[in-house]
């Protein structure tokens, strides 16, 4: 197990992989407001950047401590641990969402006769081992896979672009503001809001002054990737087909062919997509174990990874069996459920820090 | 070193895991469906599903002659059940992943496209880039017609679709485009029309991919002539005209000039005429002269300009006739003006969308302006000198 710290650049790459894992699989916010989706995505991205600023500010106040330690320090032992338990529930939700999404995609598009539980079991075995290896190893793996991802995506996107006839984001500003705001919330819930998990890794970077910069760049790139994918899928498939398709970007990729006979190149993208989704689950599992360690004040966490993986698998095997429920969760519960851990708790922590500073100043 | 060896051994062993999947299909056990025909039997109220298959292990140029295509039909109350009933006769597992053509029989197309198209999009095996063609009459019967060239029928069909860009009088859409447009209540779409006839000098009937089939409100509405289909090629999206080449025989004074035409640019704008919204279309074309029926000095710039003008007016007239037919006779927006208005003039569209089908589209003024340039006159100037 490797406990080395990672550089801000590695953190940024991890952050991108974490956010972009399967962010382009459903494109639910785009199905909601179609042409105005860019407004929702950019709003969610800006909100994430503000959120990251707050989280980095909190981290800078306690440079040597992990966010779980900071929460316990600021909120007290019992309230702090309760908040950490709340984070654990949220992370379980994120992990299960990823597991279920990857198994749903595989059983729908590639392996219809394979059991989703088997797919999830294989995924969880891989992610558990990866989380056990430590953050440094995970980030090195990310650095290796991202160039392949970038090149493959650029080639595929260039080919899809040939099929885009008209600007799919026209006409603009045709949806009511509340619907755009709701879509921004959906976009914030998935994929941007889960960045809150990332703040548990801030203490494990070498140069904390560059935290904000690396995470912001990763967020902007994730947003660009999401917008490009939406634009291409929407433009290539057309409005009605886009709404009809379960996995619109994948459907658009399926249409790519080199020449007349070289088809089925989507398999390359599926591979890369899967690996990015694995990173997402790995990071959630890693942060989960860190929090568990803080809750029980345990130093050696190596024996926790397998039980945590087993919990993730057990919950995933019994949740969202109906795919419609998965989409409904993404659309109706996640956008609101993410508000507390991603917005309200960081705001509370900031307020406490300010009040403490104010109290210290008054005393002196 | 020991760890690396163990790792490599583990990787090699993991490659064998692929055989554990229940999704594995051996190549010798499968038959590739190359064409699918879907008909509807009105009397029995059953779908008739016909496939044209090749054994995967014989799908090479050398072997195809030895083992012919296998064509079989089965019926069922739903498309899926009809397809599954085929299994009672199939000696192999049928695989649709290489099927490029879906022929929809006239009866099924006139009834409803919904179930057929839904089946095609829901199945993971079927590619959205496959072509959907409406057969004049019974699709199953057309599929059983022997290919004129002696090649596989699917290969011949693919050649016909590719050749559409070289004459323009046929237009075949992919399943993806059909799904995207066919439920749109404001417009119609045109896809390929497959028919059977005796060719000139031939003694047996062969397949023709010519003209188009108009689909509106989710069902086949009308057949379209080759000339009108060419107009659609020119007027609809760039992807249909960017590689299009077609022949025109333009009258000029008392002569006729044959041209090979290409579309260079097409733009559309909203105009107002007599208080009504209208559409102005501007098309830039280029032509090259392929033959003249009488002597004409094309080396003379004034004459060449005259031919350009004549070709422009001729093309304008040709397109106007087609547009007039689409508006007045078909009453179907198969060009997609409604899409243009909705995208670029959303407020105007909101105002007129309710009456678009009944009032606005059939009476909407449409102006067409064509500019033909002839940048090349070929390898000869005037036979016999100017």
Description of the structure:
The complex is a heterodimer of chains A (364) and B (386). By secondary structure, chain A is mostly helical. Chain A has one domain (8-363): Orthogonal Bundle (Hydantoin permease), CATH 1.10.4160.10. Helices cover 74% and strands 0% of the residues of chain A. Chain A has 15 helices and no strands. In chain A, helix 1 packs across helix 12 (266-295). Chain A is globular and about 75 Å long. Chain B has 386 residues and is of the alpha/beta class. In chain B, 33% of the residues lie in helices and 32% in strands. In chain B, strands 1, 2, 3, 4, 5, 6, 7, 8, 9 and 10 form a 10-stranded mixed sheet that branches. In chain B, a hairpin with a 2-residue loop joins strand 9 and strand 10 (219-224). In chain B, helix 9 (226-235) packs across helix 11. Chain B is globular, with a radius of gyration of 26 Å. The N and C termini of chain B lie far apart (87 Å).
Strand content of chain B: 25-35%
Domain count of chain B: the total is: 2
Shape of chain A: globular
Number of helices of chain B: 14
Shape of chain B: globular
CATH architecture of chain A: Orthogonal Bundle
Low-confidence stretches of chain B: none
Unreliable segments of 5+ consecutive residues of chain A: none
- Quaternary structure type: heterodimer
CATH superfamily of chain A: Hydantoin permease
Taking all residues together, what is the mean pLDDT of chain B?
Answer: 87
What proportion of the residues of chain A is helical, as a percent range? over 70%
How much is the average pLDDT of chain A? 89
Question: Which chains make the largest contact?
Answer: A-B, 27 and 23 residues
The termini of chain B sit apart by 87 Å
Our estimate of the beta-strand percent of chain A is under 5%
Helical amount of chain B: 25-40%
* Count of beta strands of chain B: 14
